[in-house]
Each structure stands twice: as structure tokens, then as C-alpha cells.
Amino acid sequence: MDIFSAPAYRISPLAKQAFGEKQKFAHATETATESTRPEKKSHPKEAENQANIQYELQQLKHRDRQVRTHEAAHITAGGSLIRGSANFKYQQGADGVHYAVGGDVSIDVSKESDPYENLQKARVIQRAALAPANPSATDHAVAAQATQMAAIARIEIARLNREQGATSAQPDTSAGAAQYQRIEREGDSEAYRLNEYA
């Protein structure tokens, strides 16, 4: 038998009314049963756990902002010496979001062939390392390395200046060149120090 061709049955008005009242009664009984059930009260431990979760999320969000600001300061100050973008270490919060809890930026600290370029590069490296509001121990170590790089560059620059001065002093018979030659012969240490760090 095809279900779509089944004959239509008539429902009497009295049956409709009885069915409707049965539905109302069932609904009223269900509502009364629900209202007599004891309400779920939140336990103090559950409230404490929720508070702890919210606190941890706030801490993760705060740390994320700090880390991203810190690395952005390095990138801004380092300019063209920065290699690539910041690398972050993430921690997943209770809300499923990954928050940055650590990070680093690569900076070019290789030696240049020209001591003047090395000195300039060392200054940029030091500025980039100490750019964040709270530099880390690693940042201070990189800044110290840049200070050492700058000191070596200054020594090389002083050596170049001495060599250029000695070369130009030999053919020149002016008073300045003669005085320079006298200082070199006598070994005036004070003049040497000033020249070395000029």
C-alpha cells in the first residue's frame, strides 16, 4: 500500500479537544516537576576555579602584550640589521587562544671590513639591544658584545689615523708634521691615548 494514497480520516471535534487538554496537562506536569527539582548551586571550588582561570587569562594577555612590545622595540631600533621577523613561543590559554610568552629577534653582529662601518654597526646593535623598556639578560649580553665591537673599531680607527698621520708626516715639513714626528719619537703617552681614542 502506498502511504501517500492512504485515505484521510476525520477527527471529531471532541477528540481534538481531549487531545489538546491532554497536551496541556502533560506540559503543566513537566513544568511543575522542573520547578520542584533542586537548583544547581555553584560550589565555592567551582567559583574559585573560574576566578583562577580568568586571572590566568589576564596574565597571559598581559604577557603577550609585553612580549610583542619588547620584540617590536628591538625591530624598530635595529632597522636593517634585523634578520627576519620576531620568533615567538606560545602558550595556550584556557580559552583555546595561543598567547606569546617569549620571543626573540635575530640581529646581524658580523664584522664589517671597514672599522668606521663596524663602529656604526656596533652603535645600532647596542641601541637595538637596549631599546625595550626592560631589557633581558640576553639583551644586556648583546649590548656588551656591541660595546666590545665598538671598542675594537675605535682602536682600528686610531691605528688607521696613526698610519695615515705617519705617512703624511714624512714628506710634509710643516710645523704640525714636525711636532707629530717629535711626539712619535719621544713616545708621549698622553698624546698617544688621545689619538688612539679620537
How many DSSP E strands?
2
Shape: rod-shaped
The percentage of residues in β strands lies in: 5-15%
Roughly what is the average pLDDT, rounded to an integer? 76
- The strand order across the widest sheet is 1-2
How many structural domains does the protein architecture include?
Answer: 2
- Element pattern in H and E: HHEEHHHH
The tally of helices reads 6
Structural class: mainly alpha
* Uncertain spans: 1-9, 172-198
Overall radius of gyration: 41 Å
Q: Strand count, sense and closure of the main sheet?
A: 2 strands, antiparallel
> What is the distance, rounded to the nearest whole angstrom, between the alpha carbons of the first and last residues?
110 Å
Helix % is 55-70%
List the helices and strands and how they pair.
Blueprint: H1 13-36, H2 44-78, E1 82-92, E2 98-107, H3 115-129, H4 137-169, H5 175-186, H6 189-196
Antiparallel strand pairs: 1-2
